[in-house]
Design brief:
Radius of gyration of chain A: 19 Å
CATH class of the largest domain in chain A: Alpha Beta
CATH architecture of the largest domain in chain A: 2-Layer Sandwich
Order of helices and strands of chain A: EEEHEHHHEEEHEHHHHEEHEE
Oligomer: homodimer
Number of domains of chain A: 2
Structural class of chain A: alpha+beta
């Protein structure tokens, strides 16, 4: 007998990772969204409740990232039944921690568990992308893919995405500092120039290639050199009060690099484990000096990605 | 007793490799330049002769890539002696196969063999970069680094460059087709727009990251998807008669990718060894259909890089 209800957890994620705008992200297991999906005889998708740290979200399925993802799944698979779901948000809205992606991912993973013919992960990615587009106004995958797959994830392509989990050097951790303020993804995208100077393009591509290469070869010196965004961060950092102080403090405390998580305002740093507590303390203090309260975590950059917690297979 | 004269071979190279403009290149062992350097009591650098396939080059040291590289070495190391050199060019001028870089690399490698205190490879890279700047009008390393180190090479940074040799999947070969025409690097650079559209930036970075990741993981599918230049090639291909036909023929014959070598007009393809002869034949035929004669090679993408062949240590 097919299970009729399942609950899935989808982790938060840091998009962009400084040098991989729209293509790179890593999962943050410390927080995430939980989505419970129930199969209904009635067609369509309904959202019964949204609770947790961000309850003020649209309940109309087509305007909700999770709802839209399940609508996309229903349509693509021509499902003869509908879905009812409830969402418990663990990721604050507008934090830059991939909350909309996590809800979409949680929804498709939970829904997949109640399908008669479960879909491969890559298909789930495509459904979740449809959902994410509602929140960000564009089809991008830098939060969806790490939340679904887990770890540091590169996605190449949109129509036929290739997903690559990239190894993170052992002992490297991420420090995540979320200042208590709201930044909309659409707004943060809107301020970006439509072009990149050729010289910045060359620098950024060098950093990206160096970062990827450094991850595959445990080359912390190269990661330190490369984890530096010369394209997006200079345009966005003014949206985050104290950004420069926080970044400088992180680097001074030994971070390999420090930048904006996704569209912000959350900031992240990479650090060897021994320095991670000092990096966190420095970043929190720098925000604090401006009177900005924060939540903060030190996390390993590995995760199983989204998974069914109850019900389903 | 210190050796007074040495001859070094420096291989040709394919710069850019489609998706690594100014940062990525691979060596082409099939052709290269030979530079003989002799220590002289008189200070300064003199070029006695330039022979081979490209003899019509400046003999004045400051205006010659190899001469300028040795002038940079003399100055940086405050050498109390001078150099006299002769160059045998194996790489045609204006072919896009890194001829100016190879002369500079050959010169510093040969000169290094007659120093009392030989320098590390990274210092030689910096001297050769000074030479390359004479030819191209900019400090870039995408030919210098692979000619010096060998193989597929990423360089991050200019002032303090980090050089990374990236593994190429076993069994992958490069097809190199040099049409008999001349393209100046300065001209090919001058036609490039000074900015890159943000959407092209995202695509190209995805392809670059995918390519690097594919190389580390022997993922030929990802390399095939990623070896596609959406930024530089569309601006430059018009300089190469028949470009689109040649590229299409290579792909149809099974190439993983096909693009311009450096600033052109040489074109390269990557291919599994089994398909390499057909790829070569297709590319040569496509140029031939336009009445353009070619030289062509199938090479392994590995090399020891530049080395002393006689004299020195």
């Amino acid at each position: 007998m097919t299970v009729r209800e399942a609950t899935a957890f989808a982790p938060a994620s840091v998009g962009n990772v400084a040098i991989g705008f729209d293509i790179l992200g890593f999962s943050v297991e410390a927080l995430g969204d939980r989505v419970t999906v129930r199969r209904t005889d009635a067609p369509g998708v309904t959202i019964r409740a949204i609770e947790g740290v961000a309850a003020n979200l649209p309940l109309e399925a087509a305007g909700n990232t999770a709802g839209r993802a399940l609508l996309a799944m229903r349509e693509a698979l021509a499902l003869p039944f509908g879905f009812e779901m409830s969402i418990v948000k663990g990721i604050p809205l507008g934090s830059g921690l991939g909350g909309s992606a996590a809800s979409a991912v949680g929804a498709v993973v939970a829904a997949n568990a109640v399908l008669d013919a479960p879909q491969p992960q890559l298909e789930l990615l495509k459904f979740a992308m449809q959902g994410e587009a509602v929140a960000s106004g564009s089809l991008h995958v830098d939060n969806i893919a790490p939340s679904l797959y887990g770890g540091l994830v590169l996605t190449v392509g949109i129509e036929q995405p290739r997903v690559k989990q990239i190894p993170v050097p052992p002992g490297v951790q991420a420090v995540i500092v979320h200042p208590h303020m709201f930044l909309g993804t659409r707004e943060a995208r809107a301020i970006l120039a439509k072009t990149v100077a050729l010289s910045d393009f060359v620098w950024q591509t060098a950093h990206l290639a160096g970062f990827i290469s450094g991850c595959y070869t445990n080359d912390l010196d190269l990661i330190r050199t490369s984890l530096d965004d010369v394209v997006i961060e200079p345009q966005r950092h003014a949206l985050i009060p104290g950004f420069k102080d926080v970044r400088a403090a992180a680097i001074l405390a030994g971070a390999l690099g420090c930048s904006i998580s996704g569209a912000g305002p959350t900031m992240f740093a990479w650090s060897v484990a021994a320095s991670a507590p000092a990096v966190r303390e420095a970043m929190v203090a720098a925000f604090g000096a401006r009177g900005i309260a924060t939540d903060h975590w030190i996390v390993d950059i590995e995760s199983r990605g989204a998974r069914v917690e109850s019900g389903g297979s």
